What we know:
This protein is mostly beta strands. It has helices at 177-181, 184-187, 202-210, and strands at residues 2-7, 11-16, 19-25, 33-38, 57-62, 67-73, 109-116, 122-128, 137-143, 152-154, 167-168, 173-174, 236-241, 244-245.
Amino acid sequence: MALFKLFFALLLLCTSTYGAKFTFVNKCEYTVWPGILTGSGTPPLETTGFELPQQSSRSLQAPNGWSGRFWGRTGCKFNGTGPGSCSTADCGSGQVECNGAGAAPPATLAEFTLGSGSQGSQDFYDVSLVDGYNLPMIVEASGGSSGMCAATGCVTDLNKYCPDELKVSNGDACKSACEAFGKPEYCCSGAHNTPDTCKPSVYAALFKMACPRAYSYAYDDQTSSSVTGAEQPGAMSCAHSPGTLRSGSGSGPEPKVKTSGSSD
């Protein structure tokens, strides 16, 4: 069994071949509203969004083969008398539940694909800033015979260092360069839609300097860290067999849940 902790200040994950249990733990000094989006073709979790007060936690069970993403919404107002919204990473549903909608950028994202790789024995995970940043988030992993399920994420408060041209309103979040300027060289689109033609911008370099293990732009695979011999350089992986974990080499490029921005 593997053990993963994800703090967008919020999360924990235990995995095995039979599924995974995610435990969200809010270490922020304020309430956070986690949002959940399940990938196409996999069953949804029991909720798509909920309120998580400071220093509280909540666990959710996921089946093996599940893929999806988590994020934290802030500044939310849901009073039960009408549609509500959040000041950052809102999913636009007007409710605490996101109901299949993703996060509006900027949003720090944690992305997971469970039970992929050779014989369904590997779980892949990453933290992405491709859609910008709104909260610190880190995934901590332990377990496995080699103990090589590495941590990834971003514990730096990027809002404090966000350039003025990327700041959102009063500095509650930091846009990606793609969202801020919409240019192909920042969005890795058009003539810049390959790893060879889309290079990290000065803004991506700033994100990478602050958070070296998080994805900073769409083709950041070659600069993000990897573990346990995973052949997908940007994503962390843990390998397991029934009841225990083993170190795994991976059998080829593995699927990873991409962000809703230019990384697809």
